[in-house]
Design brief:
By secondary structure, the chain is mainly beta. About 10% of the residues lie in helices and about 40% in strands. The longest helix is centred in the first third of the chain and has 36 residues. About 30% of the residues are buried.
Amino acid sequence: MAPVRSKRIIYLVLGMLLLGFLIAAVYISLRPAEETKRPTQERVTSRLPEFLNIFGGEEIAPEEKPAGKIAGAPEEKLIRITDFPVVSPALDAKGERLLFYKKDGGDLLSLDFNGQNQEKISNITIVGIVEVMWSPLKDRAAVFYLDGEIKKGFLHIGTSSVAVLPQNVLSFSWSPDGKSFAYLISQDDRLNLVTADSSARNSRTIFTTPLPDASINWITADQVAFLTAPSGLAEGYLYLLSRAASTFQKVIGPLFGLSALWSPDGSRVLTAATDAAGKNISLAVHESSGQEIFFSGAKTLPEKCAWRGKNLIYCAVPRTIAPQGVFPDDYLSGEINTSDRILLLDLERKEAREILAEGSFDMANLLVSPDQKNLFFVNRADGTLWMYRLVQ
């Protein structure tokens, strides 16, 4: 019995080995056919959504780059809203759509947050458009353009009405309620502050200052802020004019490279300053009295930031700053471009945290939707409008 049992075991082992060899042979013979069915890495990359190609994917021809969300594609966090340059985007009065002027020709357009359902609000031709100041009510805007080397402006009211502004306007600001505006004009080596109603009627000079150059912000019903021309090679000052009390007081300065962005309620101001050589720029937040309440150390300009309420500030912060650059001079003149990430400054927690690290954008004109789900910006490199989903 033992020899028979041993033979059975030997035959069983040999059978299993033979079966294994057969399976291996079949697998090897079929493997090339399976490989030919797999798409190559190049083909997969060519089908990636356009926004991923800024991270090194295959370049898509310009005519194959549709603006907005691609039908049937998964929800992406970074979306190009337009494939053409825009000027001064804003949110409409309800905070539900985007308003902006087209750089080429000056058409006034409206889009939803995905870059779709485009509406042309006005097709007034504006050649050389450079800046737009929107009323808080979003029912009109002050539009400035270059006619040769002369800067001119007008109020664009509704869809087609216009009211001409003086040619020598140095700075412009709407009142917080949108019912009036103020502007600066130069006369006899002095700056005159002029106010008018929202239709450019009833203008009158309410204040005169010997400051040689300044910009204004009408920050509360009573107060107008004056900021001397920012330069990293000159000391700057921030002043507050009280219309009711007829006082003009310095609140911040002297600081080299001083620039500023006021909170929506005018109670706080985000400032940037440099050393005497226009280097080592950094951000800080002050109360309207001038008292510093938060030093963030973030190296960027207030022009690259946006307030959300009085406690949150979104800022585009350059990853690196050219050591030979003078800030803010070289950036504002367009001699320097940056590659930015997004930081959120939280004034209640006294902290800064990173929101967006990907991409290579020189971000400007930041906007945050009222629900804080979407952040919009213009890429200064080509003027296109983009959206980043803060919440999905």
